[in-house]
Amino acid sequence: MKKKDFYFELPQSQIAQHPVEPRDNSRLLRLNRQTGEISHFKFYDLCDILAPGDCLILNDSRVFPARLYGKNDKTGGSIEYLLLNQVKKDIWEIICRPAKKARIGENFSFLGGLKSEILEILEDGKRLVKFDYDGNFYDILNKVGQIPLPPYIFEKLEDSERYQTIYSREIGSVAAPTAGLHFTQNMFERLKIKGVGVGYVTLHVGLGTFRPVKVDDIEKHIMHAENYYLPKKTADLINQTRKNGKRVFSVGTTSCRTLESVYMKNKCICEDIGSTDIFIYPGFKFNVVDCLVTNFHLPESTLIMLVSAFAGYNNTMRAYKTAVREKYRFFSFGDAMVIV
């Protein structure tokens, strides 16, 4: 398939600039992937769509303040870092702007006494840098770094916790697993009473999830690897759910990629830690996920391609067309859909 096959028109006014309050009052489009039927709900109605014995699998990764602004030690020129991946204790893979000013050996200083040296220039213009500092690195980041909101969000976010899920705990993502932003504690309490299992995986969202597809033939697109962990407790929950003939709901494309990656690697669901560069597009065979909760994604992105693989291409594009017509809110702070 071609990249252009996943394009759709979206008015600028439907790109959500701020989250809905309360979280679970977002709209929810339900798509039946067998019949193509579309229906409309509120997100809190997901509790009624799930049945006793089903399970929800969520990504508990937490976004860290990965954006830094600093100065060149020699010239005083400005630099912007976006931290992507911790390679070793003080060595990180980053992207930076302006990249042409970040040559090997250049030194930059940031607030909080944080300093860095460019060690290596990697593919796609990324850099490998070594940080020097006194104290705890993440404590410094929390004081001087900024949460890296997506470029299509122009309005200031007053409360940075609104770009975190309420269950986030494992620090490591540069972007939120946004399908989970809609959940509230009240919803989890309702699900517990109903007998719905809840389990967690960790996939640290990096450049791989959001890197744009630049090739016309989507099969030639290469994903960057992202680190994941599937604990034994979650594996046991999934296996028991499937043994009982109930459904596994993946919350978000990152949870979905984690589950399917573990299965492909081990031919079963079990405790596992590793990295994945899995790229899911139409034609992929799903082995674990029965239902998918997800937001509405960018045109021509790997995320809409994953949704199309799960729901069917025609169903997906028709659902997106419906969402545009019905004035759903799109992208990170937008509304959600559940595919059953």
What does this protein look like?
With 340 residues, this protein is of the alpha/beta class. The chain folds into two domains: 3-63 and 158-339, QueA-like; 67-144, Beta Barrel (Thrombin, subunit H), CATH 2.40.10.240. Helices cover 22% and strands 27% of the residues. It is built from eight helices and 17 strands. The protein has helices at residues 46-49, 137-144, 185-194, 207-210, 232-243, 253-266, 302-311, 313-325; strands at residues 27-31, 38-42, 55-59, 61-63, 67-72, 78-86, 91-97, 107-110, 115-121, 127-132, 170-173, 197-203, 226-230, 248-251, 272-276, 291-295, 336-339. The strands form three sheets. It has a nine-stranded mixed beta sheet with strand order 2-1-17-16-14-3-12-13-15. The chain has a six-stranded antiparallel β-barrel with strand order 5-6-7-10-9-8. The chain has a two-stranded parallel sheet with strand order 4-11. A hairpin with a 5-residue loop joins strand 5 and strand 6. The longest helix has 14 residues, at 253-266. The two termini are 24 Å apart. The model has no long low-confidence stretch (mean pLDDT 96).
Care to give the gist of this entry?
The chain has eight helices and 17 strands. The chain has helices at residues 46-49, 137-144, 185-194, 207-210, 232-243, 253-266, 302-311, 313-325, and strands at 27-31, 38-42, 55-59, 61-63, 67-72, 78-86, 91-97, 107-110, 115-121, 127-132, 170-173, 197-203, 226-230, 248-251, 272-276, 291-295, 336-339.
